[in-house]
Design brief:
There is one protein chain. This protein has 200 residues and is α/β, with parallel strands linked by helices. Helices cover 28% and strands 25% of the residues. It has one domain (8-190): Maf protein, CATH 3.90.950.10. It contains 5 helices and 7 strands; from the N terminus they run βαβαββαββαβα. Strands 1, 2, 3, 4, 5, 6 and 7 form a 7-stranded mixed β-sheet that branches. It is globular. Keywords: Cytoplasm, Hydrolase, Nucleotide metabolism. One of its GO terms (molecular function) is nucleoside triphosphate diphosphatase activity.
Length: 200
């Protein structure tokens, strides 16, 4: 990036999103947003994910008025039920039991907020993941090994979680992990960020 490019902030406490963003070889800092992530009454999964991605970015913009801020949120749904982070083994097992043999929708919302101009680009990248019809024992054993209790839907596609999936359909392979890099690079280019600069 050039000196005229504003600082880039990832507004997320997720280690998975941090790891993904490092792939772009851009300098950035991490700031954790402080918002209520509870879905609102009668809110669709898309609306929940988009609202939270924007709120996270806006929250950080209050203290960083000169920055480009990335906000992201992910909501998983199956049979119309929203699945959040399980938090523990028992909840994760219930989630996987609900998901097995079915196709789960993952809404990976992404916001690039330009705090200088108070403008933003906001998108929802949808991934369809079909879960294998596995036994309770297999699901429980998987959870004990990987312990994906901080992931929506209790499966980490970048790890052993890929073994419980039959199929993944998405325009962006990184969306399911939590930060859609194809969409993000499009947003950053539109904001003037330079990715490839020859050495002086």
């Amino acid at each position: 990036m050039t000196t005229s490019t504003p600082p880039l902030i990832l507004g997320s406490s997720s280690k998975y999103r941090q790891e993904l963003l490092t792939r772009l070889h851009l300098p950035f800092v991490v700031v954790s947003p402080n918002i209520d992530e509870t879905p609102q009454e009668n809110e669709t999964p898309t609306d929940t994910a988009l609202r939270l991605a924007l709120e996270k970015a806006r929250d950080i913009a209050k203290l960083h008025p000169d920055a480009l801020i990335i906000g992201a949120d992910q909501v998983a749904t199956v049979d119309g039920v929203q699945l959040g982070k399980a938090g523990n083994h028992a909840n994760a097992l219930k989630q996987l039991q609900m998901m097995r043999g079915k196709t789960v929708q993952f809404h990976s919302a992404l916001c690039l907020f330009d705090a200088r101009r108070q403008t933003y680009d906001l998108r929802d990248i949808v991934t369809l993941a079909t879960v294998r019809d596995l036994s309770d024992e297999e699901l429980s054993n998987y959870l004990h090994i990987e312990q994906p209790y901080d992931c929506a839907g209790s499966a980490k596609v970048e790890g052993l979680g890929i073994s419980i999936l039959e199929k993944v359909e998405s325009d962006d392979p990184t969306a399911l992990i939590g930060l859609p890099l194809i969409a993000l690079t499009d947003m950053l280019r539109a904001a003037g960020v330079v990715f490839y600069r020859a050495e002086a």
